[in-house]
């Protein structure tokens, strides 16, 4: 039986300094899984995994030079239960060493959103979308349309 | 109660041409959710969502010029049940218009992996990892370490 096509099971962030990156994510509340090995860190999410991997190693794995790899055009978001939770997790990120790109604010689509960048320039959005309820484990299933 | 910190609920790909991007993902087996609106496409995954959004809109949303946004340093992977399934989904991707970066092959960590880029340069890895069993719905939970 074929697996569902609409899946992402592993998100890999290429990082310039694995120690720095791990320290940032630890300070932001992320704990590496014991399956992490030398040169790579894995973090269990809901049915998927986030990985940190050296940028040059990642480029070599892709079969091309690391100079061509860039960040920002693919963003990761955490949807939150409230604007207050967006503010809190955003501030936690800044304290952990992230750079603020856009302070959390009410936005045109009716929600509340802010952007920050991790020490390697990977972009995270923290958002509250009142039209998208979250499950207790924090996972997101889109509501049926009207 | 605070939501788990280790979450990604929405992955957004900035795209130069939404029609082209939607056509590519449709040809690769992805069906937009009815909640998709003008200028954005959403795809339901296992507890998370993939979104397509105009690159310049995304840059504006981040509060910076689109010229600084790049791809490739953050990669998305689908873990597969077998090397044969990697080959099949990789070939499907090429037929849909992806560019091969690295043909699927046996790799140093004991698995089988290939890389391709979508029409906007977003990088996908298709991989079989014999040490990481998948659930029936295709989601990934890391095994306990030895």
From TrEMBL, chains A, B:
Residues 7-129 form the VOC domain. Gene3D superfamilies: 2,3-Dihydroxybiphenyl 1,2-Dioxygenase, domain 1. It holds the Pfam family Glyoxalase. InterPro entries: Glyas_Bleomycin-R_OHBP_Dase, Glyas_Fos-R_dOase_dom, VOC_core. This is VOC domain-containing protein.
